[in-house]
Design goal:
single chain; 156 residues; alpha+beta; Multidrug-efflux Transporter 1 Regulator Bmrr, Chain A; eight-stranded antiparallel sheet; globular
Length: 156
């Protein structure tokens, strides 16, 4: 697996927030609900996504976490009058990037490899991680799905 240190730039985004346990199966259900909610808003509002969907994981404590699920949008579209749909920015800053190929149920394996790499390089993981879903699971076979994974890093 290849890893790359990148500096990401913030983009405006619209998103919904959900809470989940760290259980992969529960995360899948929570993500499905969140993508349905943000997708319905996008369809109702006519806002055009400015890139692929993403999920930002934060506030994890080993058993639970929060996830912000949404789309980057043009600056003039980053406004919502609906209480559930929030306006914000995609994460910015120094991050370790990996590209995961295959099932979402195996994402944890890529995260574990990234954590090992971070330790080997003398870095420390930051407080957020995020995924960019490059492939559409409705149009791509499970084994060919591509997901960019980013983990914020501090140090060297």
């Amino acid at each position: 697996m290849q890893f790359e240190i990148v500096n990401t730039t913030a983009q405006p985004m619209l998103y919904v927030t959900r809470s989940s346990s760290m259980n992969s199966e529960e995360i899948g259900g929570v993500m499905g609900d969140a993508f349905a909610a943000i997708g319905e808003f996008i369809n109702r509002s006519g806002v055009a996504p400015a890139g692929p969907p993403l999920a930002v994981y934060r506030d994890w404590d080993g058993s639970t976490m929060k996830v912000d699920v949404g789309f980057p949008v043009a600056p003039d579209s980053a406004v919502s009058s609906e209480p559930e749909v929030r306006s914000g920015q995609t994460p910015a800053g120094k991050a370790l990037k990996a590209v995961h190929r295959g099932s979402y149920m195996r994402l944890r394996e890529t995260y574990e490899a990234m954590e090992v790499h971070i330790a080997q390089e003398g870095l420390t993981a930051g407080e957020i991680a995020w995924e960019v879903y490059v492939s559409d699971p409705d149009q791509t076979s499970e084994e060919d799905l591509l997901t960019e994974i980013y983990m914020r890093v501090n140090g060297a």
